[in-house]
What we know:
This is Ribosomal-protein-alanine N-acetyltransferase. The chain has helices at about 5-30, 55-65, 75-80, 130-140, 155-165; strands at about 35-40, 40-50, 85-95, 95-105, 110-120, 145-155, 170-175, 185-190. It is α+β, with helices and mostly antiparallel strands.
Amino acid sequence: xxxxxxxxxxxxxxxxxxxxxxxxxxxxxxxxxxxxxxxxxxxxxxxxxxxxxxxxxxxxxxxxxxxxxxxxxxxxxxxxxxxxxxxxxxxxxxxxxxxxxxxxxxxxxxxxxxxxxxxxxxxxxxxxxxxxxxxxxxxxxxxxxxxxxxxxxxxxxxxxxxxxxxxxxxxxxxxxxxxxxxxxxxxxxxxxxxxx
Length: 196
């Protein structure tokens, strides 16, 4: 083997080893064991969403979105089967789902994107959404993401304030983004500090 091909082999091996380490790091960071958590002095159960949770996830969507389900069963099933680059969490109280959050990771963009978040109306303003967002932000730092991003309805000022309180900044508008009513979406991004 020539010195040139030996160097090339070493570079390829180093690249492969780095990819494998990154995959393992990402897999570990995206893993969530079911556990209990206290949010504002109330005890909840938090766990990774399973395909068997889809019916309840859709029920939460209907309660939040006036009987509509922006995502259908097939879309959620597809997302929940992708364990390495998707993270969906559910929050339960007394075995009833009260909230969920979904996210997808783009390694190329180093972006952990919040795909959806919903809290049953009677459980809103109890810190659950903030807890879920902070969990996703923490996971993003573990996989060395550069940012966390999301879209929010232009009319949803309450959610925008919550996101802004966590450091999210407005990064433009997507006209007619939402299916059905074609409402505009505001792109919001939380830049993450790079590890030194």
